[in-house]
Design goal:
Length: 119
């Protein structure tokens, strides 16, 4: 089993920045892709960004140029630096991890952290 614990969410004004962290623990040796998804109430969860163990990244078009995903394999932690935040970025952000190199194949989820962007 793998446990994922997110931190770093909160309230920020439009144009501001936040950094999310996700620490993985447990049987993490076989984990490959890790990433961030977000969900707005009443809408489907969507991929924000993903990164493989080798550092290949994938971003949703809506966040390209504003968000950066990074990973510290030694610390088993993935980060999401979010800049130029917009009110439409408001959502619950959840960390994901999987054994596949595809960010879309998720085996584990974190509980989520709320990001609220005020206008």
């Amino acid at each position: 089993q793998v446990q994922l614990v997110e931190s770093g969410g909160g309230l920020v004004q439009a144009g501001g920045s936040l950094r999310l962290s996700c620490a993985a623990s447990g049987s993490i040796r076989s984990i490959n892709a890790m990433g961030w998804y977000r969900q707005i109430p009443g809408k489907q969860r969507e991929l924000v960004a993903g990164i493989t163990r080798g550092g290949i990244t994938n971003y949703a078009d809506s966040v390209k140029g504003r968000f950066t995903i990074s990973r510290d394999n030694a610390k088993s932690t993935v980060y999401l630096q979010m800049n130029s935040l917009k009110p439409e970025d408001t959502a619950v952000y959840s960390c994901s991890a999987g054994y596949s190199s595809s960010i879309f194949v998720v085996n584990y989820w974190g509980k989520g952290t709320l990001v609220t962007v005020s206008s």
